[in-house]
């Protein structure tokens, strides 16, 4: 009897996945059956409308002063030049900067009190204008010219005052002369009236004597 040999092959590994065991998260002593969590549809929670928030304050855009704009630098909050060189009047700083320079202007203003700075800036701008008009004498030439005008006006004033005094003296003399003439004319009238009175009284006495003469005879 012949035995047929059968060749046996090892079992091939299949690619079937190993079942994964799910463990219940409940403690082992719980006798209740595991709850099956069914997926619930996602519902958005009803949110109340947000409360009305106040609007943000408007953004104030601070324009740089004329000095910082011309110098092309950032104008800080406490800029020394900002109160005296506004952005709408750049010519004022251009004139002062041309003669004195920005650093000298800042240094000069920092040495003064705040109540004196405005007058100092006005003086610097005036002197710079005078220096540009008259590069040789500058403001000294303008001051000399003004002093000459003052002297001329003082001379004219003294002349007018002398004329007033002369006219007052003439008026006084004229009034005295008129008073003298009036007194003389009144004196003449009085003398004439006195003479007339004397003549009339003399004639009255003569006529009275003539009337009494027949009585004595």
TrEMBL record:
Keyword Ribonucleoprotein attributed: no
Domain of life of the native organism: Eukaryota
Sorted UniProt keywords: Coiled coil
Keyword Coiled coil: yes
Membrane-spanning intervals of the chain: none
Segments of this protein annotated with the region Disordered: 31-57
Biased composition annotated in UniProt, kind: Low complexity: 31-50
Family: Belongs to the LOB domain-containing protein family.
Name the UniProt record assigns to this protein: Putative transcription factor AS2-LOB family
């Amino acid at each position: 009897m012949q035995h047929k040999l059968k060749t046996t092959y090892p079992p091939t590994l299949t690619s079937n996945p190993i079942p994964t065991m799910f463990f219940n998260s409940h403690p082992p002593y719980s006798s209740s059956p595991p709850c099956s969590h069914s997926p619930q549809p996602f519902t958005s929670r009803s949110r109340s409308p947000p409360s009305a928030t106040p609007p943000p304050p408007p953004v104030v855009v601070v324009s740089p002063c004329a000095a910082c704009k011309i110098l092309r630098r950032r104008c800080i909050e406490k800029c020394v030049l900002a109160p005296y060189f506004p952005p709408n009047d750049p010519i004022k700083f251009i004139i002062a900067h041309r003669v004195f320079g920005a650093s000298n202007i800042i240094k000069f203003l920092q040495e003064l009190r705040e109540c004196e700075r405005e007058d100092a800036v006005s003086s610097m701008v005036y002197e710079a204008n005078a220096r540009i008009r008259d590069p040789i004498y500058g403001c000294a030439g303008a001051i000399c010219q003004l002093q000459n005008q003052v002297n001329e006006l003082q001379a004219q004033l003294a002349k007018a005052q002398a004329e007033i005094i002369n006219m007052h003296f003439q008026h006084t003399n004229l009034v005295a002369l008129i008073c003298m003439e009036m007194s003389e004319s009144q004196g003449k009238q009085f003398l004439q009236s006195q003479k007339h009175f004397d003549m009339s009284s003399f004639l009255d006495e003569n006529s009275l004597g003539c009337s009494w003469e027949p009585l004595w005879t």
